[in-house]
Write a structure and sequence with these properties.
190 residues, alpha+beta, Aminopeptidase, 8-stranded mixed β-sheet, 5 helices, acyltransferase activity, transferring groups other than amino-acyl groups, RimJ/RimL family protein N-acetyltransferase, Acyl_CoA_acyltransferase, GNAT_dom
Length: 190
């Protein structure tokens, strides 16, 4: 592989959103957690290995489309102590055909169970969305959320996302497709 692109962190009040390099993703997928932690600059829990499927998908995207790298998977690290609390990513570069005109980019995120309901997902979504607006002029954002995932549905509603349609994802089953224009309208704090 050619020289590795250095992608700057995205910072929010409590989080560092750090890009996961191909080398870090490979080390994680091969269960070399100590090496992956050195690449990341933060310790990784054994539960990190459960994210291998999304890591493989994002790694393949970066290898096939190098311009996707800054939009790929980022670790959510607590600024105060470097603790990994989850991850966030854009599913593609802006304007990808798979979005079928629903919006400019789609975001996905996972917060580790011990850190849920503490506002980290909301903070990471806002920081990534702000970065996308500044970087590429993104105006409309998409989230795909299981109808049964009530906390994520509530979070999306609190940011002003509204229901567009339901799709049947071959891997995840039914998902509500929600959209919101920037700037998001905070309706209440989740």
């Amino acid at each position: 592989m050619s020289t590795t692109l250095t992608v700057p962190d995205i910072l929010s009040p409590r989080l560092i959103l750090r890009h996961l390099t191909p080398a870090m993703l490979r080390a994680s997928m091969e269960a070399r957690l100590a090496e992956a932690a050195r690449w990341l600059g933060a310790p990784l829990p054994i539960s990190w290995l459960e994210e291998a499927a999304v890591m493989a998908l994002r790694l393949e995207q970066m290898e096939n489309e190098p311009e996707y790298a800054p939009w790929s998977m980022r670790a959510m690290l607590r600024r105060e102590d470097g603790q990994l609390v989850g991850h966030i990513n854009f599913h593609t570069c802006p304007g990808h055909a798979y979005l079928q005109g629903r919006g400019d980019v789609e975001l996905g995120y996972t917060v580790l169970p011990a850190f849920r309901r503490q506002g980290y997902a909301s903070e990471a979504l806002l920081a990534c969305a702000g970065w996308a607006v500044e970087t590429a002029g993104v105006k409309r954002f998409v989230l795909s959320i299981s109808p049964d995932n009530l906390p994520s549905q509530a979070l999306a509603a609190s940011l002003g996302f509204h229901w567009l349609e339901q799709v049947d994802d071959p891997e995840d089953g039914p998902e509500d497709v929600l959209v919101a224009d920037w700037p998001f309208t905070r309706q209440h704090h989740v």
